[in-house]
């Protein structure tokens, strides 16, 4: 049996990084809280059907005798107009609230980052063309563009997700281009060029890895922003369609009842707020971790 | 000279972006939908209607000519007719602009009024608990869905405290007791001009909750940006020099530092205007505010496609113009901007 050799410098580098990450997270109570919230959110999404007290109601099954019950021991967050347990709907709704934003951000990064790296690395007319197209998409308020696209494509969760990818990719193009431009004159890029490495390899092997930390910071914040935007689209009737559990849709449903049955809109609204807040705080924490000035 | 060149170049980019906006919206209006004519008439389209619209929009002609017709219509201010009201969309939008502008401006007013001082305070007490509180508050502001915050404020200020009205621009009865002459469409301005104090007070009270809801996001962004800019500037040599000369802390911060921190903050204010524009969609729905946002959302729900596209074009154009104004303003305030 051959032991896998562990390179000593790499190991100490790793421990140092780990200690640095821990120190940043532990120093700031907000980072600690946000990390905890996001871990719980992911666990809830994964084990939604095991955790939810009334899994079938969470998925949409109605319960005519239980309509509009206020919060109680049986229904912690009360029930909605169709008698469904709101806590269960929130827990089951955590799944789309996690998966869709990850998908949207992932596609936006996959589309935007290589384009930006290409623009920054090649420069010249290609840079001009790519960045001007990016400017065009940034000329629309993103939610407005998403609305226009979603209504051109038709209603539905998948279409709303496509609409959000189309309005989100330019941000990553900008970030990746910024990094690529700053790397253009660095020796490792020049050396790679000098020995005849192709542009594709330079972009994917040498430039893109360097964009990971700024993109990760942006992507973390964007996960929250996309949850907000998906919620907004659903609230306007463009995203998830009933009876699928969706936090934005639940707030929208509860709006009519909210002066008397406040719990219907309040708990899903709080769920959106808390998760988006956690992603924003985590984004800040990641920025602190990646900021080299913090290393001592 | 440099300034003039910057102004012209900046105007050129805006023009280019506007052309791009027309291309993208053309693409969305004519190429993405399977049958654009049907979308333009609505679900109950008859075949002769479709034939008529196909001819009118030039849908049977090659794409470049279609685009030419599209842009010519746009330049004439013709955005087509709304499916649900049958009136020209330009007219529908024009009727609703004052209501939305009133909301947008008062929202941004709150945002700047609260955001900038919060950012300065936070920077002044960097690392202390006040700083932590402001940072948390500003992150909470950008994390709060407007459609949820509006409901919370309504429950609190209307239902529990009975302090502020639930929704709308003015109390309905005032139309009979103190009728308002419509001059500009801005209720605050009109009531001020006609010395209609009852309506002025009423409209002001109605404006508070929607403006605060709208302002939450911009407050967060502006506070964060101001804090970051202030922190950077407070480290500069000239600030240290000013302090060394014994100039009072308050003057150093509010006169010397803030003046230089305002430039990046202006950019953010311009950006947040756009966010606020889409924010009005939710705020107007929740507060029953008869503006552009409510019109857009109604159009979305009734699949009024020409109206949706009209609003998209209008919103994007407004955004481009606001950004242009902010950039020019910035160049005027801060001469360094026009140098690069």
Rounded mean pLDDT score of chain A: 81
Helical content class of chain B = over 70%
Overall shape of chain A: globular
Helical percentage of chain A: over 70%
Tell me the distance between the termini of chain A.
40 Å
Main pleated-sheet profile of chain A: none
Structural class of chain A: mainly alpha
Q: Would you count the extended β strands of chain B for me?
A: 0
Strand content of chain A: under 5%
Main features:
heterodimer, A: mainly alpha, about 75% helix, B: about 350 residues, mainly alpha
Question: Would you give an account of this structure?
Answer:
- The complex is a heterodimer of chains A (296) and B (340).
- Chain A is built from twelve helices and no strands.
- Chain A is an all-alpha fold and 296 residues long.
- In chain A, helix 2 (29-46) packs across helix 5 (86-122), helix 7 (142-153) crosses helix 8 and helix 8 (157-183) packs antiparallel against helix 10 (199-235).
- Chain A starts with 7 loop residues before the first helix and ends in a 6-residue tail after the last helix.
- The model of chain A has no long low-confidence stretch (mean pLDDT 81).
- With 340 residues, chain B is an all-alpha fold.
- Helices cover 76% and strands 0% of the residues of chain B.
- Chain B has helices at 2-31, 36-41, 47-56, 63-75, 89-124, 129-143, 146-160, 174-177, 187-193, 197-234, 237-244, 249-286, 292-301, 305-333.
- Chains A and B meet through helix 6, helix 7, helix 10, helix 11 and helix 12 of A and helix 1, helix 6, helix 7, helix 12 and helix 13 of B.
């Amino acid at each position: 049996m051959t032991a896998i050799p562990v390179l000593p410098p790499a190991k100490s580098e790793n421990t140092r990084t780990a200690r640095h990450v821990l120190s940043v997270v532990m120093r700031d109570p907000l980072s600690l809280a946000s990390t905890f919230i996001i871990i719980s959110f992911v666990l809830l999404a994964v084990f939604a059907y095991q955790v939810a007290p009334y899994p079938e109601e969470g998925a949409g099954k109605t319960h005519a005798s239980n309509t509009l019950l206020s919060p109680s021991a049986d229904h912690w967050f009360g029930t909605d107009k169709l008698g469904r347990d709101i806590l269960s709907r929130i827990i089951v709704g955590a799944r789309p609230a996690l998966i869709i934003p990850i998908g949207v951000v992932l596609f936006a990064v996959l589309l935007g980052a290589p384009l930006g790296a290409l623009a920054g690395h090649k420069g010249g007319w290609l840079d001009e063309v790519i960045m001007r197209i990016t400017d065009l998409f940034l000329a629309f308020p993103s939610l407005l563009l998403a609305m226009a696209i979603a209504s051109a494509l038709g209603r539905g969760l998948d279409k709303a997700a496509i609409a959000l990818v189309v309005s989100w990719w330019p941000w990553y193009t900008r970030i990746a281009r910024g990094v690529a431009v700053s790397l253009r004159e660095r020796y490792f890029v020049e050396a790679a060029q000098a020995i005849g490495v192709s542009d594709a390899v330079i972009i994917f092997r040498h430039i893109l890895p360097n964009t990971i930390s700024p993109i990760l910071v942006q992507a973390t914040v964007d996960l929250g922003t996309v949850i907000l935007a998906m919620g907004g689209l659903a609230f306007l009737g463009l995203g998830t369609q009933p009876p699928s559990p969706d936090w934005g849709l639940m707030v929208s449903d509860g709006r009519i009842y909210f002066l008397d049955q406040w719990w219907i809109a309040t708990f899903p609204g709080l769920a959106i707020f808390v998760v988006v807040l956690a992603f924003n705080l985590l984004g800040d924490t990641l920025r602190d971790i990646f900021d080299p000035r913090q290393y001592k | 000279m440099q300034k003039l060149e910057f102004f012209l170049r900046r105007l050129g980019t805006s023009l280019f972006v506007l052309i791009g906006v027309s291309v993208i919206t053309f693409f969305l209006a004519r190429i993405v939908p399977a049958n654009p004519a049907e979308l333009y008439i609505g679900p109950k389209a008859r075949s002769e209607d479709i034939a008529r619209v196909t001819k009118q929009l030039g849908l049977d002609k090659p794409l470049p000519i279609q685009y030419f017709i599209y842009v010519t219509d746009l330049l004439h201010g013709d955005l087509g007719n709304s499916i649900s009201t049958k009136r020209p969309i330009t007219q529908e939008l024009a009727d609703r602009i004052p209501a939305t502008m009133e909301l947008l401006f008062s929202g941004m007013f709150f945002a700047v009024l609260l955001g900038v001082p919060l950012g300065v305070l936070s920077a002044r007490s960097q690392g202390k608990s006040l700083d932590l509180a402001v940072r948390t508050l500003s992150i909470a502001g950008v994390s709060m869905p407007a459609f949820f915050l509006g409901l919370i404020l309504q429950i609190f200020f209307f239902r529990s405290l009975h302090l502020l009205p639930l929704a709308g621009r003015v109390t309905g009865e005032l139309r009979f007791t103190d009728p308002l002459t419509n001059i500009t469409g801005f209720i605050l301005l009109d009531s001020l001009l006609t010395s209609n104090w009852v309506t002025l007070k009423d409209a002001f009270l109605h404006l508070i909750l929607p403006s605060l809801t709208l302002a939450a996001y911009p407050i967060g962004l502006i506070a964060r940006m101001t804090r970051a800019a202030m922190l950077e500037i407070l480290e500069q040599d000239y600030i240290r020099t000013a302090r060394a000369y014994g100039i009072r802390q308050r003057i150093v911060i509010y006169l010397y530092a803030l003046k230089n921190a305002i430039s990046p903050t202006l950019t953010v204010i311009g950006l947040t205007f756009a966010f606020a524009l889409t924010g009005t969609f939710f705020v107007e729905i929740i507060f029953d505010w008869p503006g552009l946002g409510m019109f857009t959302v109604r159009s979305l729900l009734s699949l009024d496609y020409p109206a949706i596209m009209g609003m998209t074009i209008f919103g994007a154009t407004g955004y481009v113009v606001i950004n242009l104004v902010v950039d020019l303003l910035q160049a005027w305030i801060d001469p360094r901007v026009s140098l690069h």
